[in-house]
Amino acid sequence: MTAKGSREIHDDDKVGDIERTADSVTDDETPTYSSDSVTARSIDDGTRVASPEHNDATAATQNGVSAEAKEASAETHAPGQGGPPDADDTPEAGRTKLETTLIVLSLCAALFLAALDVTIITTAVPTIAEEFNSNIGYIWIGSAYLLANAAFVPTWGKISDIWGRKPVLLSAVGVFWIGSLICGLATSMGMLIAARAIQGIGGGGIIVLVNICISDLFSMRQRGVYFGVMGMVWAVASAVGPVMGGVFTSQVTWRWCFYINLPISGVGIVILFFVLKLHNPRTPMMEGLKAIDWIGTVTIIGGTIMFLFGLEFGGVTYPWTSPTVICLIVFGLVTIGIFVINEWKYARYPVIPMHLFRNRSNLAAFSTSFCHAFAFISGSYWLPLYFQGVQGVSSLLSGVYLLPYVLSLSLMSAAAGIIIRKTGNYLYLIIGGMFVATLGFGLFNNLPLEPDFAKIVLYQIVAGLGIGPNFQSPLIAVQTSVEPRDIAAATSTFGFIRQMATSISVVIGGVVFNNEMQKQYPRLRDQLGPELADMLSGSSAASSVGVVAGLQGEEGQIARGAYLSSLRTMYIVYVAFAGLGLIMSLFIRQKQLSKKHTEHRTGLKTLRSRTGR
C-alpha cells in the first residue's frame, strides 16, 4: 500500500492494521510487555533488530508495514531494555487538572455507593424484616445484592469492549440508580429483594468499570495512585455503612439507606456525561448483541449464582448435607466448568480469555488477590461481632471501634499508590503487605476477653497496614503482563475473583464460627441452661449478641468466652489464607512501569482486528 493510500484509510481500520502488525511481532500468547510497561527481554527468536543506519521507511517496507504504522506500533508497545521511565509527566488525553479532578471524584462517588450498599443495610435489616413481617429478609436483602454483583462483573467488562467505557459505565450507574429508587419505594419484601438484585447488577458494573476507566485514562505509572484512592474509598464505605444504616434507621427511616444513592449518583452521571472523555465506537445495537459471547455470559452468570446460592443456603436455610445445597453447589461448579471450556475452545470474543491464566505471574497475582480479599472482608465483617458479642458494645459503637482497621488500611492504600508512582515498584508492596497482613491476622487470635484498647487498636492497625497496599498492586502486576486488548478482560477477571473471594470468605467464616459454637453446646447447656445454650449454639449464635449483652456476672463471662474462643478459631483460617497469599506473591514478577499514556480504542473493528475473525 502506498503512503498516500495509507493516509486515506479510516482511523479505526488503520488502528486495526497497526495493532495486527504489533501483535504479529510475537506468537507468545502471554507476552512480557504491554502498552504501558517496559521490561527487559532477550530477542532470540530470530527477529533481527534494524541498525540505526537503516532507513526507517525501507525497514518498514521489508516487514510489510508503512513507516507511519511502524511508528504508531512502536508507541503502542515500546519494549525496551529496562531503562528509566519517561522523564516528563505530560498531560494525559488532553485533560485539564479540573477535568481530571471532576472525573476522579465522580468515579469515587460511584464506587463509594456501590461499596456502601454492601454493608449499609446490615443494621437496618431487623427493622425492615419487622415492618414487612418477613424473616427471609435477614438473608436475602444482603445476599441478593452480593450475588447479582459478583455474577455480572465479567459481563460488564466485555460489553465495555464492544460499546465503549463511557456509555456502559453510565448505564451501570443508571441501573444502580433505578434499583436504589425501587428499594426506597418497596412495598413488600419480595419487591425489595428484587430491587436489591437490580442494584447489585448495576453495582457490579460500577466496581469493575471504575478500574477499567482508570486504566484507560492514566498511564501505568500514574494509575497506581488512583487505584490506591479507590481502595481507600472501598474500605471507608465498607466501614461506615453499618453506622450510616443505623443512623438512618433510628433517626429517619430505613428507606434513606437507598434514597441517599439517588442525588449522589445522579450528580455523578451528569458530571461523567460531560467530562469523561474516552473513545466511543458508537457500535450499532444489533451488531453489538451479535458479538456478545452469549454461552459464556449465561454460563458464568448461572454457574456463579447457583454456586453462591448453595453457599448461602448451606447451614442456614438447609443443612449442608441436604440435596438442595449439594445440587446447587455441584451444578454451579459444573456450569462454571462449561464456561471455562467454552471460553478456551469456542468463544469468538471470550468474556474471560483463558490465556490470561497461562502466565505464571498473572496466576500468582490473581491468587494473591483472592487471598487478600478473603482476609480483608473478615476484618470488616467479623470484627464487629467481636466488639458486640465479646466487648458488649452497640452496633453503632462497633463501627467506631473498627476505625483503626479502616483508617490504617485506607491511608496505606493511598500511600501505596504514591509509592508506585514515585518508584515504579509494586512487588515489594505486594509481598511486604501480605507479610504484615499475615502477622496482623495472627494477632487477632490474641484479642482480649476484657477491654484492652491498646491491643484492640494495635492489632487492627497492623492488619490494616498489611491489607492496604494490595487493593491495587496485584491489579497493576496483572495489567503489566497483558496486551492492551486484554486490559478490560483482565480487570474484570480481577474484580470477579475478588467478589467471589469476598462471598466465599463470609460463608466459610460463618461455618467455622457456627461449628465452634455448636461444639461448645454441652458446656454451655451445663453452665447456662438449655434455653440460653440453644440461642448461643450453631447458626443462632451470630444473631444473639443482644442476648449476650444482657447477661451479667459469671453467665456473661461464660457466653463472651465462648464467642471469643470461636472467633479465635475462625481467624486461624484467615491467617492461613493470608499466609497462602504471601507464598503466591513470591511468584509475581516486577516490571518497569512507563509514564507514557496511549489511548485505548474500543468497538467491533478493534476486536475483529485483534482476533483476526
TrEMBL record:
Homology family: Belongs to the major facilitator superfamily. TCR/Tet family.
Bias kind Basic and acidic residues: ranges: 1-22, 42-56
Membrane topology label: Multi-pass membrane protein
Keywords, ordered alphabetically: Membrane, Transmembrane, Transmembrane helix, Transport
Protein name: Efflux pump dotC
Subcellular localization(s) per the UniProt record: Vacuole membrane
Source organism, top-level taxon: Eukaryota
InterPro entries (UniProt xref): MFS (IPR011701), MFS_dom (IPR020846), MFS_trans_sf (IPR036259)
Ranges annotated as biased composition (Polar residues): 31-40
Main location: membrane
Major facilitator superfamily (MFS) profile domain segment(s): 103-593
Pfam families assigned to the protein according to its UniProt record, in alphabetical order: MFS_1
TM regions (residue ranges): 102-125, 137-156, 168-187, 193-214, 226-248, 260-279, 291-311, 323-342, 363-383, 395-419, 426-444, 571-588
One function term, GO molecular function aspect: transmembrane transporter activity
Entries under SUPFAM superfamilies matching the protein: MFS general substrate transporter (SSF103473)
GO cellular component, one term: plasma membrane
Sequence segments annotated as region (Disordered): 1-93
Role this protein plays: Efflux pump; part of the gene cluster that mediates the biosynthesis of dothistromin (DOTH), a polyketide toxin very similar in structure to the aflatoxin precursor, versicolorin B. One function of dotC may be to transport early-stage dothistromin biosynthetic intermediates from the cytoplasm into vacuoles, thereby affecting the rate of dothistromin production.
